[in-house]
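Input record (one chain):
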Amino acid sequence: MSDKLGKFIVFEGGEGSGKTTQARLLAEYLQKEGREVLLTKEPGGDEGVCKDIRSLLLNPKYKMSPRAELLLFEADRAQHVESVIRPALEAGKIVISDRFDASTFAYQCGGRKLSCELFAAINKFATQELTPNFTFWLDIDPEIGLKRNVDAAKRDRFELEDLDFHRRVRKGFENYFQLYTTLKAARLEGVFAIETLHSQVLATLENEKII
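The corresponding structure, as predicted from the sequence alone:
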């Protein structure tokens, strides 16, 4: 990315890893520092197309083909990049996203056992080769993470998957970061206290000269 553009920071992780909290805390910190920040998420990063795709993807009443699931995630990403992320970056903002393409790799290639090559081709088309300036992977044992959402009635389609699925997802994240070695990223322990993780996030971004 050009230095004239903003910065793109992503938080990734399995269920209950704390990534949503850390994305929000970073956004709040940067806003207090006077920075222009856009906090967004996947799926559902805009109020139109993405929001509707999110409702389909997370609804527990749908039994969905893994291939259809992958294509919906990538359709959401294509819309998200074009209508939300790129315009914000071009305006010089710091974009913080709760999930991006590592999650699709982890859940669809790891969890659903789809082809990594298939993911790579479709994702390249969807993102138009946009990559984050920095990615945080909040890693957590899925058995611990899933227990953080104790209300089964509020669990989405992915949270309701069995433990073996979530173990494959965790391995999928590991494989993603081993495969995409040029991506600037850090693995953090999701079991750490919220403030400890927040301090680690800030220290990492300052050391990497991202913020």
